[in-house]
Amino acid sequence: MSKPSRMLSSVFTVGSWTMLSRIAGLVREVMIGAFLGAGPVADAFIAAFALPNMFRRFFAEGAFNMAFVPMFAKKLEAGENPLGFAKDAFSVMATLLLILTLLAQLAMPALVLAMNSGFYGDARFDMAVFFGRICFPYVFFISLAALLSGVLNAAGRFAAAAAAPVLLNIILISTMASAYYLGFEIGHALSWGVVVAGIGQLILVWKAAASIGFRLTLKMPHISDDLKRLAIIALPAGMAAGVMQINLLVGRQVASYFDGAISWLYYADRLYQLPLGVVGIAIGIVLLPDLARRLRAGDDAGGQDAFNRATEFALLLTLPCAAGLLIIPEPIISVLFERGKFTAFDSTATAAAVAVYGAGLPAFVMQKILQPLYFARGDTKTPFYYALFSMVLNAILAVGLSYYIGYLAAAVGTSLSSIALAFMLWRGTAKMDDAAKIDDRLKRAAPRILTATIVMSVAVYAMAGFMDDLLQIDGWRVAGLMALISTGVISYFVAAYLLGALPKEGLRATLRR
Question: What are phi and psi of 419, to 5 degrees?
Fold first, then answer.
């Protein structure tokens, strides 16, 4: 099998585990919605859980991994003591994370206010501080797990790292179920469950890395020349990740001034994260080490094929998902979440945010594909400058529009600034070598995929209008939603097949493998 097919096979591996994780995550969010609704406890827990996740994305998935994975992949390819490099990085990261965790315990009230100033003076603030102190050590475990996942991904072992988030969701689901039957407070139980899940994820990927010869253990931190070079590369990547976190921070600040909005945006975010995780993040995880190896070997043709097939595959799956979120957000939300403490009003408010995020979904996915083109070349500065512009645009839109459209301004700012960022990343590739060029196959496929998406959109919109009354009846909402989804899937793939948009050769070989 060809190298591009192996890359697609790896994408399917990551995507399959990510799909399982997202489905389990959806069950988790449905349970949180049913138990907590969009009330103060839900807002407080979501705000507390966001804190370690924000720092994780900044330190581990942003600054460290985007610089670490290409360097480690190149050392692995050349046999330049990759184990020693990984051990040094592991120990230094653990030290920094321990310091961060201890400082955060002291500064938790300030951190909560920095992210959710609208909580000040009401019950959500004290709860968020309490939950935050319990949740925050999660960043220590999950960031080290992210580094180990980078080691596994660079070595071409994707399954364990992709499976780790499934463990998080299983633990949180079990925690809520146990707390409910034992009569414990759901918010308290969830907070402790987050920490247990972080420990479990770290153990899982540590064992997987050890099984392939990368048994990373803690030692006295040693700043080697490689780590100094890593820091120089990581700093712009960290700043870029920080910009993205500021975007999220601005959105949360806006939402915190509207009762229930933190929860509405959170549930909407989790829904559009399903296709984003399965497609965009899966491709990005596989593409970065693959491109780094190809560029080191001078394989521009292979790099170009890998980039173009990843883009083709992403468009094929992302565009119809985005159209579905735009056309039928309310039936999706009401069927998934409207039960227990999650009301019809919450469904309507969440669905509006889903539609806005859906409009930005293709841009979110394309960012994950375009950024590795820069990172694989060791260029972390250019994405930072683009992200900085995106941050300013997001702040202007989110704050300025909040006076007119309320909490939805946060979602509008996120989507429009992401579209702008994706466009800038794409324009920036014009200065790169042939590995970043669009090939003839993608030029033929993209308009056909778009046409198939339009056909699907018309079919789903017509079916939704026909079934409008049925979708309002409680006992028939699930059947109605399944009929809408079936209409979309069938019409899209029939149109894509007739238009020649499906990549038959490579896809069939990958599916057989």
Answer: -60, -45
Going 63 to 276 to 412 to 359, the CA torsion angle's sign is: positive
Between CA 195 and CA 97 the distance in angstroms is: 15
The model's pTM is 0.71
In degrees rounded to 5, what are phi and psi of residue 121? Answer: 90, 0
- Reported as a single tens digit per residue, the pLDDT across 57-103 is 766 665 566 677 777 877 787 777 888 888 888 888 889 899 999 99
Answer for the pair 48, 135: CB distance below 8 angstroms, yes or no.
yes
Residue 429: DSSP 8-state: G
Count of helix runs (H) and strand runs (E) in the chain? 19, 0
Question: What are the pLDDT digits (tens) for 177-226?
Answer: 999 888 889 989 999 999 999 999 999 999 998 988 888 887 787 777 77
Residue with token string 């789903």: 460
434 near 375, Cβ under 8 Å? Answer: no
Measured CA to CA, the distance from residue 133 to residue 101 in angstroms comes to 9
Q: Would residue 156 be called left, alpha or beta, if left means φ above 0 and alpha means ψ between -120 and 50 degrees?
A: left
Cα–Cα–Cα angle for 337, 360, 159, nearest 5°?
70
Written as six digits, the tokens of 264 are 């509405």
**Contact yes or no for 271/325 (Cβ under 8 A):** yes
Q: Is 115 exposed, middle or buried (0-12, 13-18, 19+ CB in 10 A)?
A: buried
Asked if 236 and 384 touch (Cβ cutoff 8 Å), the reply is yes
Rounded distance, CA 263 to CA 44, Å? 9
